[in-house]
């Protein structure tokens, strides 16, 4: 696992086993903010203002999407209930090397590093709300709760086609509330067909730097 500096000055990881970066090399932070924070969390809250929000992330990775979301909620007095799914969690030492916490308030960043390993054992209470990281295959994830937003941040279909299958997406989206928002950096004809077959309305939004479009879908 190699740490790579991206064009916006933030860092990401390169997984040499599958030949894939964890984030866009055009800007890890810019991509996460655009695709997930702006097009997901802020979009949802602009539609229906809430003081509590729940997010399910597929592909927790370095925790960057969590960190920027928790930081946003902390500064806007919104209680965040965040659940991540990650089959291969990174060691804390790697997260320290990537240093995502420099992009957010120390209150949220330092707390995350201090309790990262505990969050993989059970749900923890944070300054922003709650965090749980499920170490499992996504298809084996089970919960009694539904969420407002899904961040779908799996590796690309070229490297992990099973993550973008009808079976996986149907399973994941079963945990999304009606009116909930699904966002991902990718947009393909197959993905759009699958989402439409599940009754989602599809929105093609401008992509992050280096990508023309991304996908946002609303559960009807």
Q: Keywords, please?
A:
220 residues; alpha/beta; tRNA_MNMC2; tRNA U34 5-methylaminomethyl-2-thiouridine-forming methyltransferase MnmC; MnmC-like_methylTransf; oxidoreductase activity, acting on the CH-NH group of donors; transferase
The outline comes out as: globular
The CATH homology group name? Vaccinia Virus protein VP39
Helix content: 25-40%
**Measured on Cα atoms, how large is the radius of gyration?**
16 Å
CA distance, first residue to last residue: 40 Å
Strands of the biggest beta sheet: in what spatial order? Answer: 6-7-5-4-8-9-11-10
Report low-confidence residues grouped into runs of 5 or more. Answer: none
Instruction: Please state the average pLDDT score.
Output: 95
The count of domains is: 1
Q: What is the succession of H and E elements?
A: EEEHEHEHHEEEHEHEE
The CATH class designation is Alpha Beta
Please outline the major beta sheet: 8 strands, mixed
CATH topology heading: Rossmann fold
CATH architecture descriptor text: 3-Layer(aba) Sandwich
| Number of contiguous helices | 6
Number of strands: 11
Secondary structure category: alpha/beta
